Amino acid sequence: MDTARDIREFLASRRAKITPQQAGLPAYGGNRRVPGLRREEVALLAGVSIDYYARLERGHLAGASEEVLDAVANALQLDDAERAHLYDLAAAQRTRPARRAKRPRGPIPASIQRVLDSMTDSPAFVRNGRLDILAINRLGRALYAPLFTSGTPRPRPVNIARFQFLDPAGRDFFPDWDASLNTTVSLLRTEAGRTPHDTELTALIGELVTRSDEFRTAWAKHNVRLHHTGSKPFRHPEVGELLLDFDAMALPAQPDLTLTAYSAEPGTPAHDALRLLSAWAATENASAAAPEAQAPRPERS
């Protein structure tokens, strides 16, 4: 990742979204050559010199104090996700890649898998910031069955973004395509700000930018978001459309991992669909186990 370029493009894109009227500034003249605010107007609102703000927007955040970052964030009316992303970009520029803490690797602890398996009525899984699915329970695997049964060649582990943008089944599985597309890209952009030296993330983004026009267009917008709770629609090949609530929780012992659980209010069509999905998953598991159970046992000598 080129952090300086990301800083330039992020600040310029946020500046372009704020009009003088929204910022409480008089708009002199009707011929403005730039959308949104000018650099000098952001500098005025942030209480810094024009030259200093121009330096920041050229990609030099490493020396900016927390007070300056706060002032710029306020001037650009950044939301919580955008503000955190600005701080992440500044932190990334201050820290040399060789000295950055290594991200945890290795298998998911067995205790986390036991927690997932105990959630028998809710699809649940654990992912990292790259949107790799690292652990999943039975109902979660049933919900995300198209990702695991896809005929498209894919590396391990299963990756939500790679399926969504590169697999022909992705668009059908995520029926609210525009919203889902923007969420996925925004989550990856947020992760890129936190971990710009993650080579696996860089490789994934490079693959998606190269192979998907839609991803490339959305990536250039520099949108970021926090993804804690909400609703998500699916179109499952066996049970049809279902709209599920989700809650995403960071794992304190594994700070780079997120546990996401889906649920539906009892008595709703989504809840009925989840029960149908559970029954289908049980049938699939029974079918998979049958050949093994019917296999002839070796005779004892």
Number of strands: 5
Number of discrete helical segments = 15
Question: What portion of residues is helical?
Answer: 40-55%
The helix-and-strand class reads: alpha+beta
Structure explained in plain terms:
The chain has a 5-stranded antiparallel sheet with strand order 2-1-5-4-3. Helix 5 packs antiparallel against helix 6 and helix 12 crosses helix 14. By secondary structure, the protein is an alpha+beta fold. The N and C termini lie far apart (63 Å). It contains 15 helices and 5 strands. About 2% of the residues have low confidence.
What is the fold's blueprint, element by element?
Elements: H1 3-15, H2 20-23, H3 39-46, H4 50-57, H5 66-75, H6 80-94, H7 110-118, E1 124-128, E2 133-136, H8 138-143, H9 145-149, H10 160-166, H11 170-173, H12 177-194, H13 199-211, H14 213-219, E3 229-236, E4 240-251, E5 254-263, H15 269-294
Antiparallel strand pairs: 1-2, 1-5, 3-4, 4-5
